[in-house]
Amino acid sequence: MVAFYELQLILLVSSCLVFLLLEHLTSSWKRAAAASAKDHHADRLENGGNTIPVNALARLTQQYLLVYAVVMGADWLQGPYVYSLYREQYGMPERMVAVLFVTGFMSAGLTAPLVGVWADQHGRKKLCLVFCITYTFACLCINVPYLPVLFLGRLTAGVSTSILYSAFESWLVSSANSLTIPSSDLSTIFGRATLVNGFVATGAGVVSNQLVSWTRSFASPFIASGGLLVLAYFVIKSRWTENYGKGGGTTLGTVDPLQLRRLGQAWKIVRNDPILLAIGLTQTCFEGSMYLFVFVWVPSLQEASPSFPTVALPLGYIFSSFMISMMLGSLLYTAITSYIPPPSLGSHNESSLTLHAKLSSLVCALSALALALSTRSQSEKVRFWAFCAFEACVGMYYPVQGMLRGTLISNEHRATLSALFRVPLNVFVVVSLMTGVSSARNAVLSASSLMLALSAVMTAFVVVPKADDTTSPDTNVRPG
Hints:
Blueprint: H1 2-36, H2 54-77, H3 82-89, H4 94-122, H5 124-141, H6 147-164, H7 167-178, H8 183-215, H9 220-239, H10 252-255, H11 260-271, H12 274-304, H13 315-338, H14 350-376, H15 380-408, H16 414-420, H17 422-435, H18 441-467
Helix pairs in contact: 1-13, 2-7, 2-8, 2-9, 4-5, 4-6, 4-16, 4-17, 5-6, 5-7, 5-9, 8-13, 8-15, 12-15, 12-17, 12-18, 13-15, 14-15, 14-18
């Protein structure tokens, strides 16, 4: 089956290159058309006349994507072999592997609200620098096959994950707000970030596969990951500027170090807004299923493979196939949003918000179908392609949800709310992992499928009907 996976990777890469070429040709045509019509439309501010400096948008895009590529590369290098390192190289039983995974998710769940608050209060750039330090330490710990050190590594990795999925996005949105960049351009940055993420993850899968082949150690990708994190630290330190939430950068954080008052305010905002509740539910269900997928895809394919363990699965190539699938999902998102006509003059962001709400519901529904198919089939090939379909949905999910959060959540509590949503997410993952070892693996995937279906229905009936009536809480975010 090794040749099968190599062939599928080649087919997926070829498809991705074709789509990239088509997107480039289409973008060139659209830029030429926009240039000829700039006297009629242009990307003007609502107060009348001045355009957003092109160099400001380009500079922000470059600043964010460079750092994003490096930190996500460091994260993805660890993806293919974290399970195999614990299970095969260190010889741990699957129950103990699950406990190690649970430790990371519990750490992320417990620190997520505080991470978001600290990012808003003390600075997003500062917390991104902390991320580089803590995640590098986690990479060092995982190379020590001593259980207490491995648990310490999982604890710091959990904190790092909370920072990665809250502070970086918050820095981008806040920086875009300060430059009065239109939400359409912010959506473009999110789409490009997902595309870059796919390229980086694909390369990381191939590199990790080669590192393991050369060193005969599943730990070698983690050493390379630590090197990238050191690089990211210096890039962030030299190229990023600091930004804060409301009241950030003051001495107020020292009065309430746990920020319980701010957390209470954020929870009150979510509790009184059904749209934010639905977005939080979607984040819990989708990202929870995604994290569970990280734990189950390797044993699931091994279980269905007739040649395993005689012939080891090429996990790096399989991982790269998943990442190419994610890129294809990102390209599909870009194509869909590019062909939606802009809202008419004087309107808010009706078409943009409604489109993204519908896409969110559709992505959750398709993800539910993909996971359900993987549990119903015992075929290795069917499971592989079902997992590829799920990863394609992941490629659409990140820009869709990033756009919804960036538009609907105010800068004042953006990182706090994004992190607050991660609390039920991590509870969901922890409960599932504690029951989701060999005997209950299909049950966990089935439960994830049901949760995603519920999220799709909630978004369709709560967010979509109200999207047209919703305006951005930040008045300096311009609708696209």
